[in-house]
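Researcher: Go.
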Amino acid sequence: MTLGSLVLLRHGQSTYNAENRFTGMLDVPLSARGADEAATAGAHLAEAVRRDPALTPARVVTSPLVRASATASIVAATLPGPPPLDVDWRLVERHYGAFTAELRETVRTEHGEAAYWEYRRSLDHRPPPLEPGTRAHTLVDDVLLRLPDAARAALRRGTESLADVVARLAPFWAELQGDLAAGRSVLVVGHGNSLRALSLLVDRLTPEEVQDLNIPTGHPLVHHVEQTPDGGLRPVPRGGTYLDARGAEVALEVLDARGGT
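Model: Structure:
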């Protein structure tokens, strides 16, 4: 049986991405550039589907946060069908705790270089928790109230490590493998850290590898898969392939210069 393909897409640039702020669970919109990135991503994926119809997503799964869901809607509209759009709370961005809404350079100055990089890039470190009574805490609570009961029961309320995000996405990856094994391709639209966490599961990354992984906004990343001897699935090649390889390379260089995803 022909296996499906998995396409990962980080939402287009958000208004907080543009300001170089920690966004986390805040529900901020796409910037004008972000909307353009989503349209370009849709054009690249539509062209890829035209060349290889097997790549056509049977469904699009998106984070409920508007920067992701708006990107998903823009991209889905370019595809044959268009495919149904499913919302899954497990794809929400990592909760950045006390860093939420803060400028990255401010956090870097206040906490020091070593701690800043551990909080941002390591698998296990959690930022300090978000304090009740702050504006960011109120805004995050508003987002949580709009999520399903299962989300409020499962999510850590004050802060998350990347490992926490991996834990909530492990069942999601198991479900995706069912689609792919049945020959259904799927487009997943998420955030920088929810997709880093998902990539750890898909590509079986080590903590060191996921620490170095960056994912640019608005660039579809295609994972063709094959079955493993133990009955699971693995991507071929490991890490997947960007549809716009040169554009993604430039975006990754800019992202790296700003300190990464």
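Model: The chain has one domain: 5-257.
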